[in-house]
Amino acid sequence: MNKRTLIIGSGQAAITLVRELRKLDASREITLVTADDGDFYSKPNISNAFAAGKQAAELVLTPASRLAGDLRLEMLTRTAVASIDAARREIVTAQGRLGYEQLVLAVGASPIPLRLAGDGAPDVVSINNLADYAGLRARLAGKHRVAIVGAGLIGCELANDLRLGGYAVDLFDTADHPLGRLLPPGSGHYLRDRLVAIGICFHPGVKPDALRRDGEGYVLIDSRGRTQRYDLIISAIGLRPNLALAKTAGIATGLGIITDKLLLTSQPDIYAIGDCIEFDGHFLPYVMPIMHGAKKLAQTLNGNPQTLSYPAMPIVLKTPACPTVVCPPPPVAGHWEEVLAEEGTRALFVEADSGEACGFVLQGSFTRERMALAARMPGLGKPLPQPA
Ligand SMILES: Cc1cc2nc3c(=O)[nH]c(=O)nc-3n(C[C@H](O)[C@H](O)[C@H](O)COP(=O)(O)OP(=O)(O)OC[C@H]3O[C@@H](n4cnc5c(N)ncnc54)[C@H](O)[C@@H]3O)c2cc1C
User: Fold this and answer.
1) pLDDT tens sequence across 303-355
2) Could you tell me the domains of the chain?
3) pTM of the prediction?
4) If you take atom 8 of ligand 1, which residue's CA is the nearest one?
5) 7: closest CA among 28, 27, 26, 24?
6) Residues paired with residue 325 on neighbouring β-strands, in sequence order
7) How many Å lie between the centroid of ligand 1 and the Cα of residue 387?
8) What pLDDT score does 380 carry?
9) How large is the average pLDDT for residues 151-159?
10) Which ligand 1 atom sits nearest the alpha carbon of residue 46?
């Protein structure tokens, strides 16, 4: 069988899928269409790049030209797909139409815009790709004070990195500790204290209301009416999947592009993978779901349908000030049991019905328990542990 497979996107999801496909089929015709320049890089490396003094170009692992050769791809870069004509099995770009037999959407997610009053609001930046990182470096040259809005994974990592890079960093969040949705209070305060110890100023329970331009910088007015001056404001309040393209084909969407366990969307022969999808009701914008998904999807596209389930996938927070691993529990009733010590914390989320742990947080020296604990956790698409 030699089907033309068309993939939209050139991020981790698209390239991992192509690599998996090539392991199974050296001759299949694969076309990749991407809105960006197609250079391959590892997005997680962005959050440690500033302190390491890396230029954006130094983060490129494989330039698009070499990628196309190595993986034997037809690659259309700087080509945004405007719509999908599912009835005719074609995608539509400004350069024309392109047919497919199998189509894969790997179109990622975009930062949620920060709503602010004031003339400075359009100048707020978000960091979600290499071009954003290049822009950040240019904007920060010769500057000193940065405000980061949102103390989630990316907000905390950027705060730590910019602080190590010599910047004065203020971190705002509406929660009373960083990673408010992922960490129980003890672990959250442990992380907060370690970020504060390296000089990050954490503002709990506060959100910025307005941003005014002021000479070369900005004045930020927060929800408590306080005003502070910054050179740059970074928003890290979260991502949401890119749905517009899928909607042009009438594909069902919810939190993300809804897929079944084969990563098939509601349209025949149109699949989706990566930050753009909703799988089993979950939006999982991380690398590990892509790795697992790409292996299965490659098999499926190759004529051997494979259903996907995920093992527990702990997330490693790249904050050198406070090594932290989080394995979020599923949305079930339960409570956290925390061990708090000077050298770190261990928090287990205990499910009410079974009395079994189904999520955890490890910090400091406790992070070495990661593998052992992960092996005990339920994954996605699998039943929760039952009482003995
Ligand atoms: C700073 C940062 C640090 C991170 N750190 C970690 C970490 O430590 N661990 C972890 O697990 N995860 C981390 N993540 C998340 C992880 O990087 C993402 O889950 C992953 O890179 C997403 O890959 P993707 O291919 O799904 O999406 P993307 O990389 O966003 O790729 C989407 C692609 O689609 C293209 N595209 C979109 N729309 C169109 C269109 N209409 N037409 C053509 N092309 C289109 C884009 O040009 C792009 O090539 C981090 C993310 C960031 C931003």
Assistant:
1) 999 999 999 999 999 999 999 999 999 889 999 999 999 999 999 999 999 99
2) 4-109+239-301 (3.50.50.60), 113-235 (3.50.50.60), 323-376 (3.30.390.120)
3) 0.95
4) 44
5) 28
6) 316, 362
7) 39
8) 78
9) 98
10) 1
